[in-house]
Every structure is written in structure tokens, then in C-alpha cells.
Known about the structure:
Elements: E1 3-8, H1 12-24, E2 27-32, H2 38-49, E3 55-58, E4 68-71, H3 78-85, E5 90-93, H4 98-109, E6 116-119, H5 129-144, E7 149-159, E8 166-177, E9 180-184
Parallel strand pairs: 1-2, 1-4, 2-3, 4-5, 5-6
Antiparallel strand pairs: 6-7, 7-8, 8-9
Helix pairs in contact: 1-2, 1-5, 3-4
Amino acid sequence: xxxxxxxxxxxxxxxxxxxxxxxxxxxxxxxxxxxxxxxxxxxxxxxxxxxxxxxxxxxxxxxxxxxxxxxxxxxxxxxxxxxxxxxxxxxxxxxxxxxxxxxxxxxxxxxxxxxxxxxxxxxxxxxxxxxxxxxxxxxxxxxxxxxxxxxxxxxxxxxxxxxxxxxxxxxxxxxxxxxxxxxxx
Length: 185
């Protein structure tokens, strides 16, 4: 059975991430909030680029059963919809504020910290939408193939060095597999 990846957002990051994920040919891809016709365009690309075209447009109810959800932005309803419709999904955040959005989603969903990852690419933040999309596709690939490779991502880290100890979402080296962050190094 093929996996299901839902990409949420109407941006270049979302569109390119959906294309790159479809090219992995590992999952059905559902687009939520994308411009009209984008799913049809990406589906048609399958014949040209050699992947099995299974890209569709959807709405919040179609989020159910997603193995991975890619967020190109986080809206007011996003956390509640994730918690209600796909409580077992790994969430990949490819927004403009990965650390802030990861923290907000952890609070809104009460998901385990291992299952919400923010894209970390290059040497710092502020990279363009294509690099963010490629970073999201890489994390999706690691989750769906259970690669257990080390990459950088934004995750909730325990900060035992602080007085008192606390939690902080920050960029860290993470071993990523089927369950999300399998280990924070």
C-alpha cells in the first residue's frame, strides 16, 4: 500500500515540495489550499518525469490517513485539524518561522516532539522557497523510507544545561526515520 503525504499551503514552497515528493514515487500526494489546477498540473507531470501520477486536490477531511504532512505555512486551524484528522502523522514544517511554528504546533496538537520537524537547510535561516521545498522533500524521503540518517532539523530539545532545565525548539542534528526524529544528537 502506498503512503499518503499531504502538502498544505499555497506558495512556491508548497508547489515545489509537492512536485519533489511526487517524484519520489513513494506516496499519493494530496494538496490542501493550493491554487486551482495545481494538482492536475503535477499529476500530468508524472508522464513526463516518469513517476506514477497520484496527485489530487483536497480539503481538511482529506487530511485523514496521512503518513506525513508538509506545512508551507501554519494557520489558526492547522494544529486542531492535524490533531483531529491525522494524529499519527509526522509533520514537516517548511514555513518562514520553523522554530516558532514547530513550537506552536507542539502546543496545539500535543504530538510527541519526535513527530514535528522543521526544515533546516544551509548555514542559517532565510533561504528561498526552492531550498525549503527540497529540505521538506528530503525529510519526507527519510520518513517514508525509514532511512535513519542524520540531518539538521528544528526540534524540541531538552536544555539540561539551563538553570532551571527547560525545553526549546532549536536547530539540531537529528536521526530521521519512520517515526520522525528517532534520535536528537
